[in-house]
């Protein structure tokens, strides 16, 4: 049985075929994958702000950007890869990956192909045609439950997320109204997929855009999931629940004996404390008090007060001398 006969013998109702190329092209019939891609197609088919220089809506580009957004939100842990560029110069065809993010396909495969020398800047001439192919969407073999387990464990098997042929479940070409699939595209996409059965086409008319897609939570586990990774949850928790910083211990201050100025040496002069203890200080104090008292008396009493002051000074001097003599006599 030929490949065309095998495809034609598929059960009716699960798939449909479209003419226009050599052989029959089978439409995407996996419910989960079709539901996810149709949600993007219907959204863009209803209208998009992306337009070309002539003002025409870029519905195909809108669908690609929608898949890229889901991939970025899930930190590249996603089973749908949009517009992956493939070098057809090798067998099997090799995906062109990003230089900055080796786990992500290049978002500008044409520029990457030119940079790698796969294509020349002038894309004219049959020799360059067909060296670069960019299918609309690659569906990987990894399942939704496996992706959820990777995110929960925080350990990603990146080798399974690279769109090489061994990881590809389906190559999907998306066509809006008026788009056609060429024979060159068909042969190239089947070569990327590895087998005829792994290539599918999805037209906008195949999507029931009048009825919303059911909630992914009610679908089988192969539905795209968006469970955050464990390390991502921890990072968010640390962001708004910051632990107070640990301050370094500060030693208790030591008491410091107060100082009220420099201490004068014997050479610089006599200290005030020694002066106050001396006889001169006592005599000077007595004179000062006597002068104040005499100044307050009337004129006729000044003579008597002055005589009394002299007697007081003599007595103070004698008392001071007696005190010093007793200090000297102490053993």
In short:
The chain is α+β, with helices and mostly antiparallel strands. Helices cover 38% and strands 9% of the residues.
Written overview of the protein:
The chain is α+β, with helices and mostly antiparallel strands and 331 residues long. It folds into 2 domains: 184 residues, no CATH class; 49 residues. The chain contains 10 helices and 9 strands. Strands 3-7-8-9 form a 4-stranded mixed β-sheet, sandwiched between helices. A hairpin with a 6-residue loop joins strand 4 and strand 5. The N terminus is likely disordered.
Order of the strands making up the biggest sheet: 3-7-8-9
Strand content: 5-15%
**Series of secondary-structure elements, N-terminal to C-terminal:** HEEHHEEEHEEHEHEHHHH
Distance between the termini: 139 Å
Question: What is the CA-based Rg, rounded?
Answer: 50 Å
The count of β-strands is: 9
Shape: rod-shaped
Biggest sheet details = 4 strands, mixed
Classification by helices and strands: alpha+beta
**What's the average pLDDT?**
76
